[in-house]
Design brief:
This protein is mainly α. It folds into two domains: 53 residues; 32 residues. α3 runs antiparallel to α4. The two termini are 48 Å apart.
Length: 111
Amino acid sequence: MNNHFFRILTAPAVALASVPVLTQRAYADGFGMSNYGSGWGHMAFGSVMMVAFWGLVIFLIVLVVRWIGGGSSEGTPAASKNPALDILKERFARGEIEKDEFENRKKLLDN
């Protein structure tokens, strides 16, 4: 596997694992009673975390499907309508034919 693949997976996991520690509140008294009745902040945070969780799950599924399928971010090249022209372009790129011969054969293939 690619080292980049593990970096993509571990960064969100570490960020999500640290959320409970960062959101702890100090107790109002020594008996474990906390002051949670002070607004809608926890409901909003829960909604954001739910969206972040499902976004991460969808992202990981797409990443795994691309990795298994061998796809890349550039995408796959479109299927050419004229494979003979593709071969001619490859031969010209490799230097097997000259520019004038390439243009003449291209005109013949376009007709």
